[in-house]
Structures are given as structure tokens and as C-alpha cells.
Amino acid sequence: MFGVMLKDIKNVRGQLLYYAAVVAVFFAIGIILKNVYFYMGAIIFVAAVLPISALAYDEKDNWDKFALASGVTRGQLVIARYVLGIVAFVPFFGVGFLFFVMPALRNTETLSSLFVFGGIGLLAMSAALPTAFRLGVEKARAAYTVILACALAFGIGISLLFARLGIASGLTAASVIFALGIVGLLISVRISEAIYRAKDF
Amino acid sequence: MENSVEINNLQKRLKDFEIKNISLCVPRGSVVGLIGENGAGKSTTIKSILELMRADAGSIKVFGKSASMLTRTEKNRIGAVLGETCLPENFTLRDINDVMKHIFSNWSESLFFGYATQFSLPKDQKVREFSRGMRQKLSLAIALSHGAELLILDEPTSGLDPVARDEILDMLYDFMQDERHSVLISSHIVSDLEKLCDYIVFIHEGAIIFEEEKDVLYEKYGILKCSEQELFSLDPSSIVAYRRGEFGAGALVLREKVPANLFLERASIEDIMLYYLRGERTTNTCGIKGVRKCSV
């Protein structure tokens, strides 16, 4: 699987640098405005876009045919794309905690925002990748805006629901959303594997 | 004889096409050529062996083991060249080498760059700048650089000029110098297969028409050129198919069934294929089902 990942990273290295620069700009804006939302919004986008870009290259190059004929399993091909998404997401998500170091933003609202948006990012990735595996990258890209809107609505809706019902504090609700993102990702891997198992190349 | 590939009653239904009970084998140490028109089922058969497609029914064994159960190491003993290049177009040979090191357990960097030099493939140019011939050579270089014992080649010479085709065939001759090696190759350029193959499998509309040793085909069939009157005076069971021409008729006949005094031209594989596909049949025409059986 390392070979597949290396191929993905070599393929998307240009975009990776581009998105890193975009995220850095949003980070700077967030620092200047003392607002975490700009930055977290940007990383939600990047998390799913990078593996989808890798898939787009593979579709164009017919890479999966070669990989499968060379002993790479369908499961490894699927997981490699998720790992790429996570590899892109985790460092950016980790950098988000630097906002919490700033005295003006060292509060539970910042921490909650990081977890809510982190969870939404994972949920967006969980929905986008099976869509891309099932429908192809072109259609998945078209659907991505809707997926992102749905993931945002879901995450924010859950937070508001928890707040209104007074079930849990903001931070607990945010943690629940983040946990849902992780669970969603695990379910999503299973769905993508099932899609790929049934696919003819 | 041990078989590198053994297919029994393979069935696969696609949207507007079907593979019907295909059975064939690739004995170890031999070259088997799959011939047939475009869309006859050659690529579907190859994709099924490589597990790129799931068969609806039937069994496929590679190196004596179910193709779906092959481990990574076992699958690495297969070198595949598919119809398209199937390699990242943004990559240079160095990038490809870096990735293949981790895909194939027996990857040989020196062999790969050796083939690249032999094929005059530029090391720093991206694959997307390669011509079709260069891409096919690159695919073959990869297939030959990880210790493969079985090459599965789908139209490796398609769209190439005669010189490039000849170079690729030379590489395959070299590969076959090791008696443990086997090749399954599909092509609609029958002359290429004629030079290389020990066995010919003819597929038409998803079914095998014949599977035969190449030399047996030459012994079995001949081309008779004569008048239509002479042709129809023959035993109909001796005529496989015939074609009417301006100056008489030509027929693919069974040598053993025509009188010894008739002059028969040698039937090339292409002749056999063309007569079968485009020739007319007599009412009592003979079948040309092959007789070779897989030895398990």
C-alpha cells in the first residue's frame, strides 16, 4: 500500500503545496481576526479535495487496472485514498490548536469549534469518497458542494440541538460530532470497499 | 505438463456482450496467442485472469491456484501489459521506479533502467510526452523488471509501427529463453502472434472457435484455389469455408480430406481467421473445434 500512497503523494504534490499555501493564508487571517472559523472552513475543504484529486489522476491514467494486476488489493486501493485524506487533514487540524494558545482564543468556544469543524471535515470526507468511488470523480466533484453543505448543516444542527435541549455542554456536543466523524469514516471505508469489490475495470 | 494459467468454463455477462464457457490453458514454457476481432472477448478474458473483472461462473487458476486467492508475492510473478498504458502520466521513469520498488517485491532497478536504455526511453521526460510505442515499451519494461514468470499481454503491439512491434517481439523471444516462462498474448495483428506463439486460441463473439497448436493448424488446414465447379465437386466435409473471387474461388480446406493430387497453399493463421469469419459455408461444413486438452 505504501507504493500506492507514494504514487498519490507524487501525483498531488503540486496541489498539496497549493492547498498548504491557501490554508496558511486562512490561518493568518484567523490569527489577525482572532477567529478560528476561516481556518477550519479551509481544512474541511482540503480534507476531501486531496484524495478526490488523487482519484481523478488515477481515473485519467487507468492506474487502478495496473495496480490490481500487480498484486495491490481492492481494499488497499480504497484505504490508500482514506489515508491520504487523513494525512492531509491531521496536520492541518493539529495546527488549528495553535489558535487555542492565543490568550484571546483560549476558551471552550475555540476548542468546541475545532472539534465541530474537525468532525464536519471527517463527515464530508466520509460522504465524498464513496460517492467518488461509485459515481466517478466528475460527478463526485459536482456533488461535493452539496455534501459539504449537508455535513455543515448536520454538524451545526447537532450542536444547536444539544444546546437547545441542554443535554450537554458545547464542548461535549463538539466531541460527539468529532466522534461521529470518526465513526462515519470507518463506515465509509466499509461502503467504499463494498463498492470497489463489485467494480469491473 | 504444468499449466501457468488454466481457465474452465469462464462466463461473464456484460451490458451488451457475453463470454460463453471459455476454457483454455497456458502450459508452462509456452506462448499462447489469443486471436479474434475487436470485441471478440480477448480483453474480457485477460481481465478476468487478472481479477480486474469478476467472473460470473467458471474457474481460473494461475500457477495452479485460484486467481482470486493469489497472494501479493504470487501475483508479482505475473507481468501484465494492458491495452492502455495505465501509468501515471505526470511521472518520469525515476518516479515510476520509486513507486514500483514498493509495488513489486522483486523489483530490479538495474533491470528497469537497463530496459529503458535498450528501448531508448528518456529518463527525465514525463510519460505524457511519450509516443504510443514508447508507452508500450515502458509497460513491457515494467512487466519484465520484477522477475515475472508469466506475461499477460493485451494488445501490446497495437498501434505500433513495424519496427517497434519487432522490438517488442524480440523482447518476448528473449523472455521465452527461460523454459519456466510463459506468455499469454492477445492481438488482432495475427502476423505478430504467428511469429511468436506455440498455441493459438481463436475467440469469436465470446466463445472459443478453436484452441490448437500452431504447427497443427498448418498441418490441418490448407488453402485451395480453384474454380467454383471444382470446389463443389469436393466432399463438403473437407471445406471449412470458401470465398468467391473474380477468377474462381478460394477455400480453407482440411488437408487430410482433400485428394492428394490437389495443390494446397499454406494457410496462415490470418487466412484461417478470415475464412472462418468472412467465408461462406457449405451446408455440410465441418467444425474446426480444436482438440487440445488442458493437461492438469
Describe the structure.
The complex is a heterodimer of chains A (201) and B (296). Chain A starts with a helix and ends with a helix. Chain A is 88% helix and 0% strand. Chain A is globular and about 55 Å long. Chain A has one domain. Chain A is an all-alpha fold and 201 residues long. Chain B is an alpha/beta fold. Chain B has two domains: 203 residues, P-loop containing nucleotide triphosphate hydrolases (Rossmann fold, 3-Layer(aba) Sandwich); 63 residues. Helices cover 30% and strands 28% of the residues of chain B. Chain B contains ten helices and 14 strands. In chain B, strand 1 and strand 2 form a beta hairpin. The longest helix of chain B is centred in the middle third of the chain and has 14 residues. Chain B is elongated, with a radius of gyration of 21 Å. The C terminus of chain B is likely disordered.
